[in-house]
Amino acid sequence: MTVGQVTSVAERHGPAPAAGPALSRPRTSIATRRHRAFYLFAAPWIIGFALLTIAPMAYALWLSFTTFDGISPNWRYVGFGNYRELFSDTQTWQSLGRTGLFAITSVPLSIIAGLGLAVLVNRPLKARGLFRTLLYLPAVVPPVGAGVAFKQLFDQNSGAANGVLNLFGIDALGWLADPYARYVLIMTVLWTAGNIMIISLAGLQDIPRELLEAARIDGASAWRSFRSITVPLLSPVLLFQTVTGVIASVQTIMPLLLAPDPTPAGITALPQSNYLYMMHVFAEYFAFGRYGYASALLWVLFVLILVATGVIFKATSGVVFYNVDPEAKK
User: Fold this and answer.
1) Which of left, alpha, beta for 59 (phi over 0: left; psi -120 to 50: alpha)?
2) What is the pTM of this model?
3) Mean pLDDT, residues 61-71 taken together
4) DSSP secondary-structure letter at 65?
5) I need a surface site. Which of 89, 121, 164, 182 has the fewest CB within 10 A?
6) How far is residue 184's CA from residue 274's CA, in Å, rounded to a whole number?
């Protein structure tokens, strides 16, 4: 092609666009796209948490400063009046003391029972999978079903527990009344020890076998190996179970499911040993219609749970062993 032909083509099509930064599009960084993807996938949970957790908590906090009863429009703002009444209410302190005693008793027992079952099913037994399934099965039973089952099992007139006692010539006991009601309540907690068993079993299987074999070669007994190797390496799991167990125990509604009359009218007839803090909240809400006062009780419980969790973490900071590479913490 001659120079003239090139010139005519250039005049016909115009000058070619110059390549340069003016035509280049700014590209989104990989980090920004990852952040967008994260919030996009997390948006359903964030929205649900805001609407189903934050909003009800804020509403309950507002109610705690009022005399609202859930029905009447004649309510008024009382400020910290409900909280002042709360701290002077003997029923509140007594129910809180029973709840603390129940947590101190039931949480260690359930952890010990779950850990013992985990050690048992971690051994090379025949039909080990079947035993694990059978021991874990009660943990998947809904609390309402478990409560109804225990209520029938320990019924004074037709319960199987008194039927067994009658075989040995022992008179029937009122299991669902004082002073035995607290023991039945603890049994309902131990009934779900399979849940703790599964978590403890996962922790046991994560312990390096080399350490246990080295201890055995050095002449350590099974108990010494368990106390000096297994328990320290399992301490994060035990801490998790302690925290979640305390939180669950102070919020349990099982006494209501074991009550002879589990209605707002019958909540005040609960055995005193099973009249825990949440039963007091339930009574204030639905038996007496004091929504403002009951909301104040719940917010005090929320603060107490935070304090108890902080105390547990602080008290166990020197005995919990985290098997993490120091370089991984950076």
Assistant:
1) alpha
2) 0.81
3) 90
4) T
5) 164
6) 10
Nearest-angstrom CA–CA distance, 40 and 46:
10
Region 83-90: mean pLDDT is 92
Distance CA 229, CA 225 (A): 5
Rounded-to-integer distance, Cα 155 and Cα 174, Å: 7
Using one digit for the tens of pLDDT, what is the confidence trace for 229-264? 888 899 999 999 999 999 999 999 888 888 877 777
First to last CA, the chain: 66
Structure tokens at 327: 């370089």
Measured CA to CA, the distance from residue 246 to residue 242 in angstroms comes to 6
Which residues lie closer than 8 Å to 325 by C-beta, 6 or more apart?
none
Q: Please state, in angstroms and as integers, the Cα–Cα distance from residue 79 to each residue in 117, 204, 285, following that order.
A: 51, 51, 19
**Which residue type sits at 55?**
A
Q: Which residues of 253-281 are buried (b: 16+ CB within 10 A; e: fewer)?
A: bbbbbbbeebeeeebeebbebbbbbbbbb
What burial class does residue 6 get, using C-beta atoms within 10 Å of its C-beta: 0-12 exposed, 13-18 middle, 19+ buried?
A: exposed
Task: Sort 182 into a burial class: Cβ within 10 Å, 0-12 / 13-18 / 19+.
Answer: buried
Q: Are 228 and 319 in contact (CB under 8 A)?
A: no
β-sheet bridge partners, residue 66: 77
Name the DSSP letter for residue 327: G
Q: Are 71 and 292 in contact (CB under 8 A)?
A: no
Query: What percent of the chain is modeled with pLDDT above 90?
Result: 43
SS3 for 216? helix
